[in-house]
SRPBCC domain-containing protein (Paenibacillus oceani), 142 residues
Amino acid sequence: MANIEHLQTVNVPAAKVYETLTTAEGLSEVWTNELIVRNQVGSMNEFRFGGHDADKMRIEELIPNNRIVWRCMDSDPEWIDTVISFDIEEKNGKSFVTLRHMNWKEVTPFYRSCNYNWAIFLYSLKSYCEQGEGLPYQKRKF
């Protein structure tokens, strides 16, 4: 199995990062503004990207200001049953965010594309948390 892992430093407290990653307001500024987000373990979040079917993520774990875990339940076949986690560690008012997208069956062109796009996601998270403007799917140029 293959995993994607990225680390991003965000110059805000962990509470701001956690709120951004667990609310419709935050995720709409960072990832996509076509979404349904619930903030409860066991709930299903839905994300759409330009008219495609919804990517459905079940919330597996929420530890305020520290950890978020989603399991992909419906999406591209390569994503189904993969796990996406965000670990947030705060030091001196800065947040260190480790994003992991785990349990890929193999490294494919789609895996490589997603690896790149998760880096853009973290850039968007940093930009939104620090400057108030992210780079969601609808603002990106592909």
Observations:
- The helical segments are 14-22, 24-30, 109-131.
- The mean pLDDT is 96.
